[in-house]
Write a structure and sequence with these properties.
The complex is a heterodimer of chains A (570) and B (178). Chain A is an alpha/beta fold and 570 residues long. Helices cover 38% and strands 16% of the residues of chain A. Chain A has 22 helices and 20 strands. In chain A, helix 11 (271-277) crosses helix 14 (348-370). Chain B folds into 2 domains: 3-83 and 156-168, ACT domain (Alpha-Beta Plaits, 2-Layer Sandwich); 84-150, Alpha-Beta Plaits (2-Layer Sandwich). Chain B has helices spanning 17-27, 56-68, 95-100, 103-109, 130-140; strands at 3-12, 32-39, 45-54, 72-79, 83-94, 113-117, 121-128, 145-150, 154-157. Chain B is 27% helix and 40% strand. In chain B, the strands form 2 sheets. In chain B, strands 5, 6, 7, 8 and 9 form a 5-stranded antiparallel sheet that branches. A 4-stranded antiparallel sheet of chain B has the order 2-3-1-4, covered by helices on one side. Classes of the chains: A alpha/beta (570), B alpha+beta (178). At the A-B interface, strand 6 of A face helix 1 and helix 2 of B.
């Protein structure tokens, strides 16, 4: 039987119960920011630093994104603690981001004393009401004795089934209250069924379609990573010899160099999988949700294909794309059932069709990005070089914008859980704090952040966190003095009317100096290799600011409202 | 094609759940025609009856989203011919017109009843479909209605196995077309 912290029948405060319960759930790192209504919990934490490493961020949004980064690379539940009122509202962006990207989080917010609830007390806000649409579950605790069960429930809900964020709001009197502490983990809630029943007849039907298909294509989503089904996915794909493409969040589930890899899906994904989506006779979607950035115009999506949709969330089936064969369940369980039923196959001819298009893209776009003829530095060449300098085996964190799509296109991966990016919500400012969390989660792996000059300034104060806690994050700041993605759209769809997208930036080198962040500026191509060498070899945190082409564009691109097969190369 | 659908959901009796369920509708700009929440036959389990006018494909998606909430035991949707459903209406009529116009005969004809008599007024109760309570309203209007109120819909399915019987079994958190 596992020992649980503090499970002796003695009276402790609600605050200490919070700390002990977190320890009992295996938490060793958490991210937060103190304040009035959460002070008792911080006071209790003060005696447990040997077991709980609390990282003090510079803003609650940073604490949330750090917890997300931690959760994404470890697969564990990320934990964040904030105070009431503005502390809680500052956490909202991170909670919403975790909700749409299925990231398991437990967020603990302080709340005014229960006697003051509803009185517009100082720093009171209805955080449970605010976060209802953006949490998997949330709950307000008004009695100390309810804390252990609520925390056990929070962890169970956050990590089981399709993961998501849970918020617990604890009133100040509940933090002070005393009770006899006992901790029991929860693995059952009667109203909650995280794993839907698999219909085995659908497995048979799916296997039949796969065996018949001449032009099958698999779409690898984050469900493969969340389910820990990387091996199962690989065995399935290799046995049936099916070309596969990743969603943005599915990247790294299978190593980039796999022969069946045909690239990334979506608006700024690769040419081959987008074009061939409307040529395929069978789409096998594995743990993905047919986001609009993946499908483009739904009326013109995968028109010749039957669709097999494997997912753990029944609400995703038929939400955007009709599934001829829905297979519910954890893909880690359902894929092996399918693999067993399918016949070994060979789709070399079909794969050659993808290779032909990959060659077109390589010549028309990739080579020009990696070996540019022009004088200005391009994002693609920087990302490509950084990826190689880390042996194509670093954890890639991104902010949001052009650099994010470029990073997704040009960075390469050897192992799973190597991508931390804000996919669904597209949260600028996500990158720097998420990189902090990722490094705390995987201290033995290099963590490299790509950020643009816009998003970087949304959470730039987290450089202070990096300094205070000495977190060796590697940062590549791709500075084009523009909000590049919006500018690209303005160029293409708004007659180059650059409304409010040009940035007059501070001297990032001076800012780095202020935060004691070792850094260097790369403003010409000759300096790039040496700077990347420093980035890789420096022991501690390091930042290189690369001045890139001001008006570079990300191509290919599926214009909004167009079919994926109408993807533009220029 | 838009049609009337009745959604039934069973949930834990927890604070905030009503809001969690209604935001699923408001987020998609779906107007709720009627909403009834009350305790079910099982202690601690609440029953939601929600009526909307929408296309079936959208109703399915909404029901799945409701089922997905960790505190919802089960949810299903029905068309009108799959359920027996009722609403209750109360009418307040002044005592003078009640005496004057032979109200008793009328109540028998419309299967309504008097539930309270005061010095100045009487209160009449009628259960039935909206059309029924409306019809009586139109007639009583000539009596002078002092006040009128109508409840949301309650319904029970025409299947032998009622949805609530699933509750005693292990609940399965998936969408059901009951």
């Amino acid at each position: 039987m596992e020992t649980t912290e503090g499970t002796k029948k003695k009276k402790i405060t609600g605050s200490e119960a919070v700390i002990l319960s977190l320890i009992n759930e295996g938490v060793d790192v958490l991210f937060g920011y103190p304040g009035g209504a959460i002070m008792p919990v911080y006071d209790a934490m003060h005696d447990y630093y040997d077991k709980l490493n609390h990282i003090l961020t510079r803003h609650e949004q940073g604490a949330l994104h750090a917890a997300q980064g931690y959760a994404r690379v470890t697969g564990k539940v990320g934990v964040s603690i904030v105070t009431s009122g503005p502390g809680a509202t500052n956490a909202v962006t991170g909670i919403a981001d975790a909700m749409i990207d299925s990231t398991p989080l437990v967020v603990i917010s302080g709340q005014v004393a229960s006697s003051l609830l509803g009185t517009d007390a100082f720093q009171e806000t209805d955080v449970v009401g605010i976060t209802q649409p953006i949490t998997k579950w949330n709950y307000q605790i008004k009695n100390a004795a309810d804390i252990p069960e609520a925390i056990a429930k929070a962890f169970y809900i956050a990590k089981s089934g399709r993961p998501g964020p849970v918020l617990l709001d604890i009133t100040k009197d509940a933090q002070f209250g005393e009770f006899e502490y006992e901790y029991k983990k929860i693995d059952f809630i009667r109203s909650y069924r995280p794993l839907p029943k698999t219909d085995y007849s659908q497995i048979d039907e799916a296997a039949r379609l796969i065996n018949l298909a001449k032009k099958p294509m698999a779409l690898i989503g984050q469900g493969v990573i969340l389910g820990g089904a990387e091996k199962e996915a690989l065995e399935f794909l290799e046995k049936a010899d099916i070309p596969f493409a990743y969603t943005l969040l599915g990247l790294s589930a299978i190593p980039t160099e796999h022969r069946l890899n045909i690239g990334m899906l979506g608006m700024h994904g690769h040419y081959a999988p987008n074009v061939k989506t409307n040529d395929a006779d069978l789409i096998i979607a594995i743990g993905m949700r047919f986001d609009d950035r993946v499908t483009g115009n739904l009326d013109k999506y995968a028109k010749k294909a039957k669709v097999i949709h494997l997912d753990i969330d029944p609400a995703e089936v038929n939400k955007n794309v009709y599934a001829d064969v829905p297979v519910l369940g954890n893909v880690k369980d359902t894929l092996p059932l399918l693999t067993e039923k399918i016949s070994p196959n060979n789709h070399e001819e079909w794969l050659q069709e993808f290779r032909a298009l990959i060659n077109v893209e390589t010549q028309k776009i990739i080579n020009k990005q990696i070996n540019p003829a022009e004088e200005g530095i391009l994002m693609g060449e920087v990302i490509h070089k950084v990826s190689e300098a880390f042996g194509n085996d670093a954890i890639m964190v991104t902010d949001v914008g052009q650099h994010q799509m470029m990073a997704a296109r040009y960075f390469k991966f050897k192992q799973s859980r190597s991508v931390v990016t804000s996919g669904g919500l597209g949260t600028m400012g996500f990158g720097l704090p998420a990189a902090i969390g990722a490094k705390m989660g995987k201290p033995d792996r290099p963590v490299v952040l790509f950020a643009g000059d816009g998003g970087f300034q949304m959470t730039i104060q987290e450089l202070g966190t990096i300094f205070q806690s000495n977190i060796p994050v590697k940062v590549v700041l791709l500075n084009n003095s523009f909000l590049g993605m919006v500018r690209q759209w303005q160029e293409l769809f708004f007659d180059k009317r650059y409304a409010m997208t040009e940035l007059v930036n501070p001297d990032f080198q001076t800012i780095c100096k202020g935060y004691h962040m070792p850094s260097e500026l790369v403003d010409s191509r000759e300096k790039l290799d040496a700077a990347i060498k420093n980035l890789v070899e420096q022991d501690g945190p390091y930042l290189i600011e690369v001045v890139v082409e001001k008006e570079g564009n990300v191509f290919p691109m599926v214009p909004a409202g167009a079919s994926v097969s109408d993807i533009r190369l220029e | 094609m838009k049609e009337m659908y009745t959604i039934t959901a069973f949930s834990e009796n927890h604070i905030g759940l009503l809001n969690r369920i209604t935001i699923i509708f408001t987020r998609r700009h779906i107007n709720i025609e009627s909403l009834t929440v009350s305790s079910s036959e099982m202690k601690g389990v609440h029953r939601f009856t929600i009526v909307i006018e929408e296309e079936e494909a959208l109703v399915k998606k909404v029901v799945k989203q409701i089922s997905k909430l960790p505190e919802v035991l089960r949810a299903a949707y029905y068309q009108n011919d799959e359920i027996v459903y009722r609403e209750i209406a109360l009418y307040k009529i002044s005592i003078e017109s009640a005496i004057e116009k032979n109200l008793e005969h009328l109540l028998r004809e419309y299967n309504a009843r008097m539930v309270d008599i005061q010095k100045d007024f009487v209160i009449i109760e009628k259960t039935g479909h909206v059309e029924d309570t409306e019809k009586l309203y139109d007639i009583l209007r000539h009596f002078g209605i002092l006040q009128f109120v109508r409840s949301g819909r309650i319904s029970i399915s025409k299947q032998k196995k009622e949805l609530s019987s699933y509750l005693s079994e292990l609940p399965i958190n998936e969408y059901v077309k009951a």
